[in-house]
Amino acid sequence: NAGVTQTPKFQVLKTGQSMTLQCAQDMNHEYMSWYRQDPGMGLRLIHYSVGAGITDQGEVPNGYNVSRSTTEDFPLRLLSAAPSQTSVYFCASRGRTHTAYEQYFGPGTRLTVT
Amino acid sequence: DQQVKQNSPSLSVQEGRISILNCDYTNSMFDYFLWYKKYPAEGPTFLISISSIKDKNEDGRFTVFLNKSAKHLSLHIVPSQPGDSAVYFCALYSGGGADGLTFGKGTHLIIQP
């Protein structure tokens, strides 16, 4: 199993550009989430999904869109990038078990918006 | 306002000694208290957890203690090894509502030879 994969690893955008961060998992997990980590901060939840076709907002959803058309994929879209979105983005997944708190994280995408 | 506080940004410990990482929280609604470990350029990985109904959980060299009255969580690593050098995040899970974890800012543990 590859686990949780994220592409790209690094990205530089200009203010106003759009892009999609890709996330895929091969563990057949129902739950998937996107977090961002800013310097000196903990990870904060952006959006999450409890299954294909179902998404909801987390703590910091503004400026981001998500969709979940398949169990495996959970892309994060930035419609109009802003410097405040410079961060490291982590995708995570978990199954529907009693250890639901054990999330599996991807390696992250480092995004810089100039 | 921060729900999870890790007040030590970094901690340096000699190899073989005990490392103690601390975490304070403000809200009592959480069901599980967790520690995640993160190496540079990697995502966090789950390390150990404790249920809100327990006060101690042990897994090899790692022990997590929960003091609910003080709203305090700690992770003990003994003996500390060079591979333990990483950033440790305290995280809280509520099991309902938004499906996610509430993380602290992290403590960078450095194990010195």
Tell me about the largest β-sheet of chain B: 6 strands, mixed
Beta content of chain A comes to over 45%
Count of DSSP helices of chain B? 0
Number of helices of chain A: 0
Biggest sheet details of chain A:
7 strands, mixed
User: What is the terminal separation of chain A in angstroms?
Assistant: 36 Å
Q: Which class of secondary structure composition applies to the elements of chain A?
A: mainly beta
Describe what you observe in this structure.
The complex is a heterodimer of chains A (114) and B (113). Chain A has no helices and eleven strands. In chain A, the strands form two sheets. In chain A, strands 2, 4, 5, 6, 9, 10 and 11 form a seven-stranded mixed β-sheet that branches. In chain A, strands 1-3-8-7 form a four-stranded antiparallel β-sheet, with no helix packed on it. Chain A has strands at residues 4-7, 10-13, 19-25, 31-37, 43-51, 54-57, 64-66, 76-78, 87-94, 104-105, 109-113. Chain A is an all-beta fold and 114 residues long. In chain A, strand 4 and strand 5 form a beta hairpin. In chain A, 37% of the residues are buried. By secondary structure, chain B is an all-beta fold. Chain B has strands at residues 4-5, 10-14, 19-25, 32-38, 45-51, 56-59, 62-67, 72-77, 86-93, 101-103, 107-112. In chain B, strands 2, 4, 5, 9, 10 and 11 form a six-stranded mixed β-sheet that branches. In chain B, strands 1-3-8-7-6 form a five-stranded antiparallel β-sheet, with no helix packed on it. The model of chain B has no long low-confidence stretch (mean pLDDT 92). Classes of the chains: A mainly beta (114), B mainly beta (113). The A-B interface holds A 4, 31, 33, 35, 40-45, 48, 50, 56-59, 90, 92, 99-108 and B 4, 9, 31-32, 34, 41-46, 49, 89, 91, 93, 95, 98-106.
